[in-house]
Amino acid sequence: MSESKNKTDVIIIGAGPVGLFAVFELGLLDMKAHLIDILDRPGGQCAELYPEKPIYDIPGFPVITGQELTDNLMKQIEPFAPTFHLQQMACALEKLDNGYWKVTTDIGTEIEAPVVVIAAGGGSFMPKKPNIPNIEEYEGKSVFYAVREMEKFKGRNILIAGGGDSALDWTINLQPLAHKIALVHRRSEFRAAPDSVSKMMNLVGAEKMDFHVGDIKELHGLNGHLNAVTIQPKGGEAFQVECNTLLPFYGLTMKLGPIADFELNLHENLIPVDTEKFETSTAGIFSIGDINTYPGKLKLILSGFHESALMAQQAFRYVYPDKKLRFQYTTSSTSLQEKLGVEDKAA
């Protein structure tokens, strides 16, 4: 099937790691893909929330950052030249008379294909913003909801707010770079991994950082440049902490958005699929990654990779109904190696 501007073999909603790997699995079977993502670049949560945070459970990589994983996946799918529609949200799904699906985005982009794959993670996500007066004035200058480049925070006087994994992890990771760093949380108990809590408390004990219990009530600064915040402890007197950078990590607000209107028999905001093809209750629509659900489901990137491979096998049957699918290994198939632009080293 030849690909035109907005007509392709497979439409993938979501350009996180699982959506990107799906491009690879589809490409091995001669299927082209268009990807839609609300973010401004591929990588999903890995690129948006923890690009420099280490990940330890990707097979073959004892440790890899979110950005490194994204970069590797992008390199891996280069031979298949996918088309990205970024900073767009899939807002409508329609079955056409020719049997194809048409996905329309919120800015009017229309894409047609016989197969749709929903790889949207938890849906469209936004950071939960603290209820602090005038915080918008400081956003992007001294208030940040994600760390994309650690070096940009070198030498800063940082206050991190929150009690989950992101708050604790970034406190530990940024401490060596910061001029001064402190953590504020509304209580002394945390929702983070015990090891991270222990490391943070050891830094406090060694006087390498400060920890405050309370809520941020007010920001102080000029023209978006922060110089202090007011913290209100429960039942105590408010006090000020000097800082020029605030990183609030209060979690994410996950919203399925228009996907919830795609009539896919959602279960607790997740999409049920079978475990043979990872197809939804609607023929030709698949779901892979964290947004799907089935008995025994584990929300791991590696699980999404497995789901992508099986999804591609069934997608082939929709895209090429008259062709026979022949299973091949990349290590031994000359045709697959030609698609990837590599030579058979064993030859």
What does this structure look like?
- The chain has 347 residues and is α/β, with parallel strands linked by helices.
- It has two domains: 10-125 and 253-340, FAD/NAD(P)-binding domain (3-Layer(bba) Sandwich), CATH 3.50.50; 129-250, FAD/NAD(P)-binding domain.
- It is 22% helix and 26% strand.
- The protein is built from seven helices and 21 strands.
- The chain has a five-stranded parallel sheet with strand order 5-2-1-9-20, with helices on one face.
- α1 (17-28) links the parallel β1 (10-13) and β2 (33-37).
- It is elongated, with a radius of gyration of 23 Å.
Structure, briefly:
The protein is α/β, with parallel strands linked by helices and 347 residues long. It has 7 helices and 21 strands.
What share of residues are in beta strands? Answer: 25-35%
Assign the CATH class of the largest domain.
Alpha Beta
**Annotation, overall tally of beta strands:** 21
Can you tell me the residue ranges where pLDDT is under 50 for at least 5 consecutive residues?
Answer: none
> Number of folding domains?
2
In helices, the fraction of residues equals 10-25%
From the alpha carbons, calculate the radius of gyration and give it in angstroms.
23 Å
The rounded distance between the terminal residues' Cα atoms is: 31 Å
CATH topology of the largest domain: FAD/NAD(P)-binding domain
